[in-house]
Design goal:
- By secondary structure, this protein is α/β, with parallel strands linked by helices.
- The strands form 3 sheets. The protein has an 8-stranded mixed β-barrel, surrounded by 5 helices. The protein has a 5-stranded mixed beta sheet with strand order 2-3-1-6-7, sandwiched between helices.
């Protein structure tokens, strides 16, 4: 009788539920009502089967396994939120009980309680199905790429174990424990974590979330193993939410740290120095990458360096408890070692040196790599800041560039010498500041000769500092000016000196090359001087030189300047691999680019490398096809000059032909025709 009453009324009860859902404005905002309606209608046959199974059993437990299989086969494919299913079954319970009481006039509370208990157990079984459905969400929280980052790594395996334990119903494998037992807590003292967690506010949030994560998992385990699946489902939802929040905070910390990686790296060093922690700072830098790019192609070299990078990272990974390796901007790598012995550092450095100084067979080519590896003990530099440390490391890199082993600087005499050098470098900055302020800057000019005729066609302006009776080359101080952010001041003074010498310049050559820093192009004061310079030199051929890298990086500014003033550019150090042929062709078509100056390292190796000859021939041919002039710098032997003639390079420049002179000296030379080009 009870079976018939319930089964007869089920369609009406379910129809009432559908009508309620359709009228629920909140539900309409959250879910697709058509899906909900379809789901409830589809549940009719299921619920009839479930109630029939239930009513045939003497107790719920006897039919539990069968009911669980029925629920799993249906609900695992239902695309409806659990909250909707829960509301359906809860309302169903109330309506079934009300209908049975009214129809059969049952007064025995035990029967009513049994029906209520049955539907609650049904809800519990459905909750288990949804746990197994939703547990897969955790599998996608941490993609495999996150494993390379320390603060993600510990939870990747932890979450996988949770998913597997629930998915396979093997709760003996569930990873119980509080946050203190988690590998994450151990990782927090590693150098990488110390750098990532320098934002105190976010790190407090991270610690709280980590504690909550482990509380959530323990609660989930407790409810699940006790068969309280509805409560376990709610605990799982909390856990998924906290895992997502935890991931978001860690991601934000990594983003903040890696967005200014080198700066934060040095901030960590300053912090640890203040705490008087024993530290070692190592610089790893590859030699002549531009020349390798020119010889073997940038794509090939980049692939090789990526391959070497993987090996370096693997080598350092074994020491991550005490070591942090980053890719730098002023060097290929910086490495910080904390609380380790000098012997351990030297062993690691030697391993890295052996790894990176070798000849590699790559893409059917033998490529020789060389690096400089220098380690500095920071114990004697407690009060030094980032700029100080960077300057010292770059100085050591240059000093030890030709060592055939890794170098370790730690003796008191070495530390004292380095401190003295640093003091002297700051005096140099003061010296340069005074020279710029007093405008004690002059220009000299190095001729570019027509390779075929031997005539001076172009002169290049080169900045010099006046010091009593001598002129100091820009190569000595240009890097320091960049560090001081004063290079645009130098460029501005150079324009002023060129204006002063204009009458001599136009008599010596038909074209003037002027070097310009990319920074100057964005400086207002320089742009004002630039406007004045162009007015004075109106009608005369002036070409501004930018390095290949800077020209490509500032292509929009280059086009804007050409549009405004009609000026033209030369690509300096061409062949280093920064620009594409399409970029060069486009600039040539627009008459913005006029000259390709070959990288000096390429010209200097023309006698020793066959590939260099091919590269120079390609650049010469490309120049002709695009109606550009080609220039070879650093021409220092007659053999090189003869090769340039054969390749039909347009201009040659170098000490074989002429060193830089004052404009007055060049004018006298030209008037007296004393430049014996072929002698």
């Amino acid at each position: 009788m009870l079976v018939k009453v319930i089964n007869d009324e089920l369609p009406n009860i379910l129809q009432h539920l559908i009508e309620e859902f359709i009228k629920d404005p909140l539900l309409n905002e959250v879910v697709d009502i058509q899906k909900v309606t379809s789901s409830i209608e589809n549940q009719r046959a299921l619920l009839e089967s479930i109630f029939s199974t239930y009513l045939k059993q003497e107790a719920f437990e006897e039919g539990k396994e069968e009911l669980e299989n029925i629920c799993l086969s249906f609900y695992k494919d239902v695309d409806i939120p659990f909250a909707v299913i829960y509301k359906t079954l809860t309302n169903l319970k109330l309506r079934v009980i009300a209908h049975v009481i009214n129809t059969l006039e049952i007064k025995n509370n035990d029967e009513i309680l049994e029906i209520e208990h049955f539907i609650e157990n049904l809800i519990n079984l459905v909750s288990k199905v949804y746990i197994k459905k939703d547990i897969y969400k955790l599998s996608h929280v941490y993609p495999s790429k996150f494993e390379e980052y320390l603060l993600f790594r510990s939870h990747v395996a932890w979450i996988k174990n949770i998913v597997d334990a629930i998915k396979e119903d093997k709760m003996e494998n569930f990873p119980l424990g509080d946050e203190k037992d988690c590998e994450f807590s151990n990782y927090l003292d590693y150098p990488e974590s110390l750098m990532i967690c320098m934002d105190a506010n976010l790190c407090v949030v991270l610690h709280d979330l980590h504690r909550t994560l482990h509380k959530n998992t323990n609660t989930l385990y407790l409810f699940y193993t006790q068969g309280q699946y509805y409560q376990a489902y709610m605990a799982l939802q909390n856990f998924i939410g906290h895992v997502t929040s935890f991931k978001k905070v860690v991601t934000e910390l990594y983003f903040l740290a890696y967005n200014n990686l080198e700066e934060n790296f040095y901030k960590l060093i300053e912090l640890l120095l203040y705490q008087k922690t024993p530290l070692f700072l190592t610089i790893i830098d590859f030699h002549k990458v531009r020349s390798l790019n020119a010889t073997y192609g940038q794509t090939t070299v980049n692939k090789l360096l990526h391959h070497i990078d993987t090996q370096i990272q693997e080598q350092v990974h074994y020491h991550e408890k005490n070591t942090l390796l980053i890719k730098g901007t002023t060097a290929n790598y910086y490495m910080l070692s904390v609380d380790v012995s000098a012997d351990k550092i030297e062993r690691l450095n030697q391993q890295l040196y052996t790894l990176t100084n070798n000849t590699f067979e790559f893409n059917n080519k033998e490529i020789e790599l060389q690096t400089t590896i220098v380690t500095l003990s920071l114990n004697g530099f407690v009060e030094k800041k980032r700029d100080d440390l960077t300057k010292m490391m770059l100085h050591l890199k240059a000093k030890h560039k030709h060592d055939d082993h890794s170098s370790y600087i730690h003796l008191p005499t070495e530390i004292q010498e380095l401190n003295q050098w640093l003091d002297a470098s700051y005096k140099d900055m003061n010296y340069l500041s005074q020279k710029l302020q007093k405008k004690e800057i002059d220009v000299v000019f190095q001729p570019l000769y027509d390779v075929q005729t031997g005539k001076i066609k172009v002169i290049e302006a080169l900045a010099r500092i006046k010091e009593k009776n001598k002129l100091i080359s820009a190569g000595v101080f240009i890097d320091t000016l960049y560090e001081m952010d004063k290079v645009e001041v130098l460029d501005q003074i150079v324009l002023e000196r060129l204006i002063e010498k204009k009458e001599f310049i136009v008599q010596v050559a038909s074209t003037l090359f002027v070097n310009v820093s990319y920074k100057s192009l964005f400086d207002k004061k320089y742009r004002d001087s630039f406007n004045k310079f162009l007015k004075v030199f109106k009608g005369y051929s002036v070409i501004f030189e930018l390095t290949e890298q800077r020209l490509v990086e500032n292509i929009d500014t280059i086009q804007e300047l050409h549009k405004l003033y009609g000026i033209k550019f030369a690509v300096d150090d061409f062949g280093t691999g920064y620009s594409s042929l399409k970029t060069v062709a486009d600039l040539s078509d627009k008459n913005i680019l006029q000259v390709l100056k070959m990288d000096g390292e390429i010209v200097q190796t023309i006698d020793s490398k066959k590939s260099t000859t091919k590269i120079m021939q390609v650049i010469s041919t490309l120049s002709k096809e695009l109606n550009l002039c080609s220039v070879a710098e650093y021409v220092e032997t007659q053999d090189v000059l003869d090769r340039l003639k054969e390749m039909d390079v347009t201009y040659a420049q170098g000490y074989l032909l002429s060193k830089p002179h004052t404009i007055e000296e060049l004018l006298v030379k030209k008037l007296n025709d004393t430049l014996n080009y072929n002698k």
